[in-house]
Amino acid sequence: MATKVTMPQLGESVVEGTIGKWLVSVGQSVGKDEPLVEILTDKADSELPSPVTGVVTELFAGEDDIVAVGDAICEIDESAEASVTDDAPAPAAPDASPSAGPSAPTSPSVRKLAREKDVDLSDVLGSGDGGRIMHGDVMAAIGSSPGPERPATAPPPPPAAPQAPPRPAASRGPGPTGAFRVPPYIPKDGDEVVPFTRRRRIIADHMVYSKQTAPDVVTFAECDLHRTAVLREQHKGQFKKDGLGLTYLAFAIAATARALREFPELNSRVLDDAFVKLAEVNVGIAVDTDQGLVVPVIRNTDELTIRGIARAVADVAERARSGNLTPNDLSGKTFTISNPGRRGNLVGGAIISQPNVGILRLGTIKKRVVVIEHEGEDLMAIRPVMHMALTYDHRVVDGVHANGFLYRIAEILEYGDFEL
Predict the structure, then answer these.
(1) Does residue 360 contact residue 255 with C-beta atoms inside 8 Å?
(2) Is residue 149's pLDDT more than 50?
(3) pTM of the entire predicted model
(4) Tens of pLDDT along 186-237?
(5) CA-CA distance, 7 to 127, in Å (whole number)?
(6) CA 279-386-415 angle, 5° bins
(7) Is 87 known to be catalytic?
(8) Residues linked to residue 366 through DSSP beta bridges, in sequence order
(9) Is 273 noted as a catalytic residue in this protein?
(10) Torsion angle defined by CA atoms of residues 19, 22, 25 and 31, in that order, rounded to the nearest 10 degrees
């Protein structure tokens, strides 16, 4: 019996994946759960395991090919016998050789750009290593492409007397139809041009999409962490013995998850003509890696204790930095928290990670002089203080809900009201 292996759902809102590298070849035997191929997505790069034990009989896609979710990428025959040794190098898959056409020295993002700009890659000379076609080569080809032939016409009449150009209308904004133009880049000695990596390009596209889609608003709060700090000092030694770090981030995640239950508008997503309040509270944590930011998800965050959250944060952060996240780790987030770490600044507004309607950006924690009330008197005290910034989508979230949500997070942290 032959089994067709299809491109899996590689994360929320992802409809396609890119074949990175085949780890098997036609005629090679493979065991169930052994890796077949590296799949590249906007979320992470991961290996796809074989669903059955058998022999690979056909590869339907080549390396760098973009395949839609649900489409077949290879076939495995469970009754066939292997015709090549298991340690033989995997041959190039269909259309993967340089002679296969203009798609072979190009990345998926370059081919996508070429399609959008209606550029024939066979006419483009690549400037990258080995003749690889880069984004800049495609953009350069747009200006050099010959236009359609025009029929001969009579010479135009002499130009009229020059007139002062009209002032641009007030409603015309920046862009192709506005008055503003970005000056062209002129290379100078010492400049270093750094091509976008695949992930950096996807991050850039995501950020632009979010800013164009969501009318975002930022609101700020200041939080006195004294009682949470006392609770942390009492228990961090035991956590350390258990191999866990008890960080302020774990407390902030717990407070956010509880507030999301109380303010469900912040735990939602926008549809075409409606929005849905999501049943699950799955908090995504922005993690910086060598390839760029990723946002692994802690599922059912509101059901976890501080210990459970600390364990989950340590797990996803380690796997994010070692490149071992799975597509499931990166899908299904309902809200996002961005933590700048020890070298963060006072506070900053983050861009919403779609399709969420809010993101909380934590500021650095500093000891500051604050005014407290003690036995009816106002006193000055030195306390650990953190600023927080909530960015929210005003299509769904009104200011009263956003302010109440952020106030509630600060309140939980200030009272140190947690289950360890």
Answers:
(1) no
(2) no
(3) 0.66
(4) 999 999 999 888 778 888 888 899 999 999 999 999 999 999 999 999 999 9
(5) 32
(6) 65
(7) no
(8) 385
(9) no
(10) -110
